[in-house]
Design a protein that fits this description.
By secondary structure, the chain is α/β, with parallel strands linked by helices. It folds into two domains: 62 residues, Alpha-Beta Plaits (2-Layer Sandwich); 250 residues, TIM Barrel, CATH 3.20.20.70. Helix content is 34%, strand content 17%. The chain has eleven helices and 14 strands. The protein has an eight-stranded parallel β-sheet with strand order 13-12-11-10-9-8-7-14. The longest helix is centred in the last third of the chain and has 17 residues. The N and C termini lie far apart (54 Å). The structure holds phosphoenolpyruvate and manganese (II) ion. The site of manganese (II) ion (MN) has 5 residues, from loops. Phosphoenolpyruvate binds next to loops.
């Protein structure tokens, strides 16, 4: 059940409705929108009687929700959510350009990549400090030391930091540094972790699970919103199919489908989506054409020496070309890419 408040509803009206919901033993979730606020009701086993709310002051309508998710759906908020990341917006007209190495490997590698991606137009630096790898015998990341390097890279470049959290144990350390906390594909259904980031207010980049449906992705996001963190950005990063020629199959269909079902922004990660550096630019352009709110690209100064995902990482000069092409496609779909600030490369 969703309670849609009138445009003219007062704060007192809202509080009264929330109190009534809580008095019935349910939870009330406020979802502010541009035109009106919606209040989602969760915790009810059976149907909630809309008549309990219909005549209350400030209430426009009480509507039953047929979908399994309540807070991430368009019913709760008809307009697109814009996520504020320390002054940068994800989900507005400007595309979010996120780039950096798969893993942080050294200060030299990180700062060289950070300066290069900034020079190409990125506003966000990605880099994994805690790496959830398929094999326990491959590089697991620089861990806390990597977080220290990320903090320093932000101080030197001003780029916002996107970094992955692997488990609840290391969440406090990651949350201290991250401007955006990434939940990787392997953790999309780690419900305890979803709840833990839901208790924060730091934006969360939630990647689609390797074999997860779009509805499962939205339900994972629902876990985060249900705990009060409305700052969720979804990410299509490819799904496992029968096709062995590419690492994954980038499901471009997911972008317009998610846009229809949810108000949350969705970005595309063509690096993991295809897994081959030669195809990354084409799939980034396709993602933007499909309506993605941004791109996340793996960039490494020496891909052949990378400790993880070198085969899908772009050299900085190729990344720069990619951004210029994205700029042109963005124009076709009514989006923008921020102009490059000159002279940042060192
Ligand atoms: C990554 O972003 O480096 C990563 C591990 O991605 P995914 O979780 O999509 O595999
Ligand atoms: Mn990677």
């Amino acid at each position: 059940m969703l309670i849609l408040m009138k445009n003219s509803a007062t704060r007192e009206d809202l509080i009264r409705v929330k109190k009534k919901i809580e008095g019935l033993g349910y939870r009330a979730h406020e979802i502010p929108g541009a035109q009106r606020t919606a209040i989602g009701i969760t915790g009810n086993q059976g149907k909630v009687d809309p008549d309990l709310f219909a005549t209350m002051s400030g209430v426009e309508q009480a509507i039953p929700v047929s979908k399994p998710y309540k807070l991430v759906g368009r019913d709760a908020k008809p307009e697109n959510s814009r996520i504020d990341v320390g002054g940068e917006t994800i989900g507005g007209p400007e595309l979010a350009i996120i780039a950096g190495p798969c893993s942080i490997e050294s200060w030299e590698q990180l700062i060289a990549t950070a300066k290069a991606v900034k020079d190409a137009g990125a506003k966000f630096l990605r880099g994994g400090a805690f790496k959830p790898r398929t094999s326990p015998y491959t590089f697991q990341g620089m861990k806390e030391e990597g977080l220290v390097l990320l903090r320093e890279a932000r101080a030197q470049t001003g780029l916002k930091i996107v970094t992955e959290v692997k488990d609840i144990l290391t969440l406090p350390a990651v949350a201290e540094v991250a401007d955006v906390i990434q939940i990787g594909a392997r953790n999309m259904t780690s419900f305890g972790l979803l709840e833990a980031v839901g208790d924060l207010r730091t934006p969360v980049l939630l990647k689609r699970g390797i074999s997860s449906t779009i509805e499962e992705l939205l339900m994972a996001a629902e876990y985060i919103l249900a705990r009060g963190n409305l700052n969720v950005i979804l990410c299509e990063r490819g799904i496992r199919t029968f096709e062995p020629a590419t690492r994954n199959t980038l499901d471009l269909n997911a972008i317009p489908v998610v846009k229809k079902l949810s108000h949350l922004p969705i970005i595309v990660d063509p690096s993991h989506g295809i897994g081959l550096w030669e195809g990354v630019t084409a799939m980034a352009l396709a993602g933007v054409a499909a309506g993605a709110d941004g791109i996340m690209i793996e960039v490494h100064p020496h891909p052949s020496e990378a400790l993880s995902d070198g085969s899908q990482s772009l050299k900085p000069e190729r990344f720069k070309e990619l951004v210029e092409k994205v700029r042109r496609v963005a124009e076709v779909v009514g989006r923008t890419v921020s102009p490059v600030s000159p002279g940042v490369a060192g």
